[in-house]
From TrEMBL:
<keyword id="KW-0732">Signal</keyword>
<comment type="similarity">
    <text>Belongs to the peptidase C40 family.</text>
</comment>
<keyword id="KW-0788">Thiol protease</keyword>
<protein>
    <submittedName>
        <fullName>C40 family peptidase</fullName>
    </submittedName>
</protein>
<dbReference type="InterPro" id="IPR052062">
    <property type="entry name" value="Murein_DD/LD_carboxypeptidase"/>
</dbReference>
<keyword id="KW-0378">Hydrolase</keyword>
<keyword id="KW-0645">Protease</keyword>
<dbReference type="Pfam" id="PF00877">
    <property type="entry name" value="NLPC_P60"/>
</dbReference>
<dbReference type="InterPro" id="IPR038765">
    <property type="entry name" value="Papain-like_cys_pep_sf"/>
</dbReference>
<feature type="domain" description="NlpC/P60">
    <location>
        <begin position="33"/>
        <end position="155"/>
    </location>
</feature>
<dbReference type="InterPro" id="IPR000064">
    <property type="entry name" value="NLP_P60_dom"/>
</dbReference>
Length: 155
């Protein structure tokens, strides 16, 4: 009986930690490093909202709708509604000079721009993913690097 109690009590002393080099911890660090607290609150408020093509509210939103709302609410900039037109609207900027709030454009279909996200810092951006909803993601992932076609500023 004493051995059984010792085994049970030892389970309660185990500490659980998140590895500091995980994608989730790096995304959390990017969020914590944001200069704009309104941007931080906006992203937290929308995090996890599911993707819906043409959506523009919390019942579902697409990538260009998310960029449209974020840029308008946080920076006072009215973007076009479609990602391809947003790419035309943005002034081209080197990926090495991106700043918080700049836009990153992708072509996953191999043709024109078909996806947009908002750069945060340290290689992370926020976007409305078709499979995961609104999420902070790593721009350095190979899938994003292959599809990246333009980076730009509207601020």
């Amino acid at each position: 009986m004493i051995i059984f109690i010792l085994i049970l009590s030892s389970c309660g002393t185990r500490k659980y930690t998140v590895k500091s080099d995980t994608k989730a911890s790096k995304a959390a660090d990017a969020m914590a490093s944001l200069k704009s607290k309104p941007l931080y609150r906006f992203i937290n408020d929308w995090a996890g909202v599911k993707y819906r093509f043409g959506g523009l509210d919390k019942s579902g939103i697409d990538c260009s709708g998310f960029a449209f709302l974020l840029e308008k609410e946080i920076y006072g900039v009215t973007l076009p509604r479609i990602s391809r037109e947003q790419a035309n609207f943005a002034r081209k900027k080197s990926i090495n000079n991106l700043e918080e709030g700049d836009l990153v454009f992708f072509s996953f279909g191999g043709g024109s721009v078909d996806h947009v996200g908002i750069y945060l810092n340290n290689g992370f951006f926020v976007h409305a993913s078709t499979t995961r909803g609104v999420i902070v993601d790593d721009l350095n992932l190979p899938a994003y690097q292959r599809a990246l076609v333009k980076t730009g500023s509207v601020n």
